């Protein structure tokens, strides 16, 4: 029987869910813990395909019965989790975050969470820690797979099952590789690019029991079993899913096909017990961590993290014992009234955050104040090329060009307001700083700044320089960036004609100096604007929590930025700024003096939200701070 009673599979489930939970603690215990989801995918493909194939071969498969059993198995625990999270979130989340959460609930209930979440940033980004239903992306992909597999097996001749499964799995893997290079977010979140992992499990279910297969998997069993923990501790890294996902999936398949009876031993029981409650544990752990991350400004301290781990296990066991198992084991089958009741419950869960929003849990004022700044308009953010647009300038004959990344975008509202006789144009691309000849190239897990992106950054900056060369009306260039994307750990540089180079302060300074010299050679003046003081947490979120009296905890609960912490956090950027001032004889305007109060920097002296994610200025902050510190008059006076 290839159901959940197999202890080897329960062991794999236990390892997988523990890996995911430990990864989500951000304690760096299992830096490859994200691979737990890939292990789950293979298990799901194997079990669901094996069950359907067996029932079809015995001529007792029913679509209604299949989907009703899936609903009995998955929906009760999921709906309890979603409902309880919705209630807690209505009292704990800021306005903008609650609107995003409402979309997460809709996606989770309709099993389209992966689509919604793909539009809310990277799974590996800092903001991911604040999405209470982030983890439902994988459940949605599994449910989408459950729509395809029954139909494929039911309507195809049995002799074609394996051949079609192999072909579709190969196509999905190829699509994943292509998307991973050009659009990594799609490769991570979208079903066609992740189906290959469940497809590996499906292929395994269709070949299990064959003598030829057993001859292969028996000698591979121990190496495969060892590969899984090695990958969890020492992942290959880079874009995901990648090589480490492929290895983890095939290692999982080998362990499953071996069907080793040794996992029945009592020594494995703690892990197989976790495997028993793995579904509930996967459901409940992340909302607990995400809601705690909202309340705690800064990183969660170790005692809080350990408390959340214990709470996750306890709540998961309670939900497994009181909700998941009783309903799953209950002896009732499909009826249309029960199906209608399930749809009504789905509607109720979706409605919960909508009702909370209607009751004022997401005040429009704070949504507006914390809105992102893209400059003149979102379409002014470039992709792989730059073409001047009148919509991204105050005139067809601009005299000042603001060139840089998102830290250039956030200057635009204030600069336009204070421009006086100057006409402003915008040239901006996310993460891509205004430095010719080099581009960030990241090997950090989940980063989208791969070689394809790096080449696009180089091409974009070349286009901006060509525009500068062809536009004699521009006499001053404001270069603005956070600059750290060229010099922090895990970052290399990609250079025209040289390929990959080591990153760091020195090569960034050298390339930036060369850029300034090339701009001056066109007869134009240059001034540089650095990033505001910041730490890892979102000052705008912190300020909204204080203004609305939401629970706000942690060392930085006053929303101020201690000078010592800031100088440590931005150490490389500050070294870069100091070197650029000397090497390039250029004025670098910083926000530090204007915001400093004794030994810290203020983020809300006017009780208005001045900052949003990662130290970016809000619309209000851009206008207030740029006026208050006289940035435009200084820029025009000191540009050289």
Outline the structure in words.
With 640 residues, the protein is of the alpha/beta class. Helix content is 59%, strand content 7%. The protein has helices spanning 7-24, 35-57, 63-92, 95-109, 113-118, 136-155, 161-182, 184-189, 191-207, 211-233, 243-258, 269-276, 278-295, 302-329, 336-361, 364-369, 406-409, 412-417, 451-469, 505-521, 539-547, 563-569, 571-584, 592-595, 619-628, 631-638; strands at residues 400-404, 424-428, 438-442, 476-480, 491-495, 499-502, 525-529, 561-562, 588-589, 596-597, 600-601, 611-612, 616-617. Strands 2-1-4-7-9 form a five-stranded parallel sheet, with helices on both faces. A three-stranded antiparallel sheet has the order 3-5-6, sandwiched between helices. β12 and β13 form a beta hairpin. α3 runs antiparallel to α4, α3 packs parallel to α15 (336-361) and α7 (161-182) runs antiparallel to α9 (191-207). It is globular and about 85 Å long.
Low-pLDDT windows of residues: none
Number of strands: 13
Rounded to the nearest angstrom, the distance between the terminal CA atoms is 77 Å
Which structural category do the helix and sheet elements fall into?
alpha/beta
| Percent in helix | 55-70%
What is the 3D shape? globular
The strands making up the biggest β-sheet line up spatially as 2-1-4-7-9
Radius of gyration, in angstroms, nearest whole number: 27 Å
Largest sheet: 5 strands, parallel
Number of helices: 26
Give the percentage of residues in beta strands. Answer: 5-15%
Overall mean confidence score, pLDDT: 94
